[in-house]
Design brief:
With 313 residues, the chain is mainly α. Helix content is 60%, strand content 0%. The two termini are 64 Å apart.
Length: 313
């Protein structure tokens, strides 16, 4: 039997509540993992660029330092009439090597090269850790709140320690993975996307890639629970207006189809424009398929549709 803790005892341990895994927890981790794999690619390419620059600064300095060091030993064998010119030449090469070394240190090429290399490895490790956890069954995972806290701390640390990405690398990232610009019809409707564009639209891109997403997209939304429509069976003695009943059912089915079409348009619009469409934008794009009254009714409705039958019919 557990004993009660005496009042005023400061050794009381507060246990974290056991929270079951939900789709919202997974959504947060998926977003972090998507951004992590993007950062891994960006820092890896940045490391390659700075490594190339570091090579072009280092190798000439090595060559010039070796030549001037060797030339100092051979100075005694130079004819007297060429000694002054020889000394000036060796000194000039030494000065040039010193200038290159100073420029390399000022631009911090070696520092950035190593920093991007470490960041690429760290982001890749962060991505793999989340990927492994999400691949497990929820019952086998680390507790949701614990994993979120660990991942958030690591994500913040990596953001703070990682150097900025060159705009040329960001442009290369977009050109490589975006699948090209989205195309529209003459009336402004989005044409079907290819496979690469579809995958890129589902990917959560880091803010460093000149993409800003509204915080409203991170707002918690309660899961929509589909409710089955139950139709009460009238007593045998009460006549049923079959035609009116079928007409009501038909309207319900038609309204449901319109709801799905509007929801599909909203999702495509959010992917393309990175925001929620307004009512006017929905009407302008769907007025050829759905009446304005129906769009307005569905857009402003927050309650589940219920089908009722008047027993007095």
């Amino acid at each position: 039997m557990n004993k009660e803790q005496p009042p005023g005892d400061e050794s009381t341990v507060v246990l974290e509540p056991v929270v079951q895994w939900t789709a919202e927890h997974e959504k947060i981790l998926i977003e972090w993992a998507d951004k992590a794999i993007c950062y891994k690619w960006l820092h890896e390419k940045s490391h390659m660029v700075y490594s190339h620059r570091n090579t072009w600064f280092t190798i000439p300095v090595i060559i010039m330092s070796t030549l001037t060091g060797t030339a100092n030993f051979a100075q005694d064998r130079i004819p007297a009439e060429y000694v002054n010119a020889y000394t000036i030449g060796v000194g000039a090469v030494n000065i040039l090597a010193g200038i290159l070394t100073t420029i390399q240190q000022f631009l911090k090429i070696s520092e950035y090269n190593e920093s991007h290399r470490v960041s690429s490895i760290s982001w890749g490790k962060f991505y793999r850790n989340i990927k492994v956890e999400l691949a497990k069954s929820p019952s086998e995972r680390v507790p949701a709140l614990q994993l979120l806290k660990i991942s958030k701390d690591e994500y913040d640390r990596l953001i703070e320690t990682s150097h900025a990405i060159d705009p040329k690398i960001i442009k290369k990232f977009k050109d490589t993975f975006s699948g090209g610009e989205l195309k529209y019809t003459a009336d402004g409707k989005l044409l079907p996307m290819n496979n690469q564009q579809t995958v890129f639209s589902l990917l959560k891109i880091p803010e460093d890639c000149d993409i800003i997403e509204s915080t409203v997209n991170s707002l918690y939304k309660a899961p929509v629970v589909e409710t089955k429509i139950t139709i009460p069976t009238p007593p045998p003695s009460v006549p049923v207006n079959t035609n009116k009943f079928m007409e009501t059912v038909k309207k319900m089915e038609e309204r449901k189809k319109h709801q799905l079409k509007i929801q599909e348009f909203i999702e495509k619009f959010k992917i393309d424009k990175v925001r929620e469409p307004t009512l006017d934008e929905i009407i302008d794009n769907l007025n050829n398929e759905i009446s304005e009254e129906m769009i307005t009714s569905i857009f402003n409705s927050d309650e589940n549709i219920k089908l009722t039958i008047d027993e007095n019919v």
